[in-house]
Amino acid sequence: DAKTTQPNSMESNEEEPVHLPCNHSTISGTDYIHWYRQLPSQGPEYVIHGLTSNVNNRMASLAIAEDRKSSTLILHRATLRDAAVYYCILTTDSWGKLQFGAGTQVVVTP
Amino acid sequence: EPEVTQTPSHQVTQMGQEVILRCVPISNHLYFYWYRQILGQKVEFLVSFYNNEISEKSEIFDDQFSVERPDGSNFTLKIRSTKLEDSAMYFCASSRVAKAIQYFGAGTRLSVL
User: Which chain A residue is nearest to residue B5, measuring alpha carbons?
Assistant: First the structure.
């Protein structure tokens, strides 16, 4: 199974941008890059996903490297509510199974 | 906005007892999943379910576990004889198609005493 590598934690000040890197050097051509997050005591929540092109939605932006071996989730203005564990996941499985790693713990300070 | 609902939010049981965790997926979704998260650890896949049968399961999902879609709305996870190590948060998720966005419930915290 394709794997991802993320930093254990990142800290940001409120209203500052946050750039969360993810390495996925073994990605294959049909793998989508998904980001989920998990707020304290809640279930995982979808954030964004992409295949090759950069993507934007109301929550975040996803920048995908040209060779697709890495990507960056961008939270444009961090709020206290964005404090969570962020997971970068490749959807390789035909039945849609998500394989969560340890993710990146984002700490937002006021 | 449609959401996945899970009941109960917290289940306490004695070791060796059977438990059933319930989930109501989003109504037009066709793929259903169970995951679990032991306290302080990562989220682990248990099983996926499509067209009224298991499509994939992990090594964790042994003979003590079963899933069922008893009617058009509910999706259940049964643990036949609970062990202490089954204590965890159990999350149900659903998606419209495979490899699409999965929507997770808030989870059921299972405590086995």
Answer: A43
Residue B52 pLDDT: 92
Helix, strand counts (H, E) of chain A:
0, 9
Question: Is pLDDT of A2 > 70?
Answer: no
Rounded CA separation B109/B89 (Å)? 4
Average pLDDT of span A16-39 = 94
Region A35-56 average pLDDT: 95
User: Is B102–A49 a contact, with Cβ atoms under 8 angstroms apart?
Assistant: no
User: E-assigned strands of chain A?
Assistant: 9-13, 18-23, 32-38, 45-50, 55-56, 61-64, 70-75, 84-91, 104-109
Distance, in Å, from the CA atom of B92 to the CA atom of B97, rounded to the nearest integer, reads 15
Mean pLDDT of chain A: 93
Residues 40-79 of A with CB under 8 A from B: 42-46, 49
Half-sphere exposure of B50 (CA within 13 A, CB side): 15
d(CA B42, CA A33): 19
pLDDT of residue A29: 87
- A70 in Cβ contact with A23 (< 8 Å): yes
